[in-house]
Amino acid sequence: MKRAAIILILGLILAGCGAKNNNTKSGKIRAISSITIINDVVKNIGGDKVEAISICGVGIDPHTYKPKPNDPRTVSESDIVFINGFALEHWIEEMVHNAGGNKRVITVTKGLTPMTDERGFGDPDPHAWFDVKNVKTYSENIANTLIEMDKPNENYYRQNLESYLKKLDSLDSYVKTQIETIPKDKRVLITSHDAFRYFGRAYGLEVKGLQGISTEAKAQTEDVKKLVDLIKERKLNSVFIETSVNPKLLEEISRETGATVGGTLFSDSVGDEGTVEGTYIGAVTFNVNTIVKALK
Ligand SMILES: [Zn+2]
Fold this sequence. Notes:
Layout: H1 2-20, E1 29-33, H2 36-46, E2 50-54, H3 71-76, E3 80-83, H4 92-98, E4 105-107, H5 132-149, H6 154-179, E5 188-193, H7 197-203, E6 206-211, H8 221-233, E7 238-242, H9 248-257, E8 260-265, H10 280-295
Helix pairs in contact: 2-5, 5-6, 6-10, 8-9
């Protein structure tokens, strides 16, 4: 009787350890990503060996994200945390600390050089994912991490990486050829916040955001006036709103200048799960098609 009880207790302790030791019942790696864009890359590389969860959901603004009470628990039950870095996730350090502090955090921009805030504050611009070539680095960093964690499945991750890199290469050329169809003097992208500077640099568009590289910075009356003047001066006919940013000010600018709202772009999040735009590649393709249609 006594022995049975001890065995039972021992069993419970071991089961408890197993659960704490993360790898879910299915034996998959539990990978947390800060934003849906990174989460989608993790899904592509990790395939069915990884359970991928994003802290910021679809359409959520990561710059001003207020962690939910159960986020630290989600992190503590994970095996690995992937973040963008370049000062995007101001809240991640505290979240990892609240999750017990011993979580491995991988910065997927490792190896890239950030653009810095053109308004002169010198902050790194986090939106590196809008140069498609940069996401090849994200993919490699994610693949290397998964391989390190799960050596027996190295070939699986390498194959997924290779096929995803090919898709990124085709996306990169698609964006280039599409943007080239816009008349040169019309290649100006006006958006809610400065999320598209890497995009502009890589594909040859002039980019103006109403807010700075973070939505935390409030747009000033002066910023609004500057943008209105620019639109009038250059006779631009479209501005763009973003899925994760309040469109109010930009709609006002549109009314004041007569420039139409050319569409809603995905900036810091992919679209709804299960839709074409619910992936990074789908979201970028949607953006490019929307931009080209409006500016051409
Ligand atoms: Zn942003």
